[in-house]
Amino acid sequence: MRILLIEDDPDVADYIKKGLIQENHIVEHFIDGKEGLISATTETYDVMIIDRMLPHVEGLTIVRTLRASSILTPILILSALTDVNQRVEGLQSGANDYLIKPFAFSELLARITILAQSQIQQSAKTQLQVGDLTLDLLSHKVMRENQEINVQTTEYRLLEYLMRNKNQVLSRVMLFEHVWDYHFDPKTNVIDVHMSRLRKKVDKPFKTVLIHTVRGAGYVIKDS
Amino acid sequence: MLLKTLKKLTHNSILRLVATYLSVFVLSSFILVAFIYWSSIDYIYKQLDHHISYDYENLSYIYQHEGSEKLIQSINERLKQNNYDSIYLLYDPNKKLKLAGNLHLTTASIIDGWSIVSLDKLSTSKHQMAHSARIFKNTLNANLVLINGLDIESAHRQEQTIINNIIYGVIIVFILGVIGGFIISINTIKKINLINSAMLQVGDGNIKQRVAIDGSDDDFDLLAKNFNQMLERIQVLMESLQNISNNIAHDLRTPLTRIRNRLETLYEQCEGSQNNTNQSDEIELAIEETDNLLATFETILNINKFQSGVQKLNRQKISSKKLLTDIIEYNEPLAFDKSINIIFEPANDIDFTGDQNMLFLALTNIINNAIKYTPENGKITISYQLKNSTIAGLDLKLSENNSYLEMIIADNGSGIPEQERDKVFELFYRSEACRSESGNGLGLSLVLSIIDLHQGIIELNDNQPGLAVCLYLPT
Question: Which of A102, B46, B102, B105 falls between 20 and 30 A from B279, CA-CA?
Answer without folding.
Answer: A102
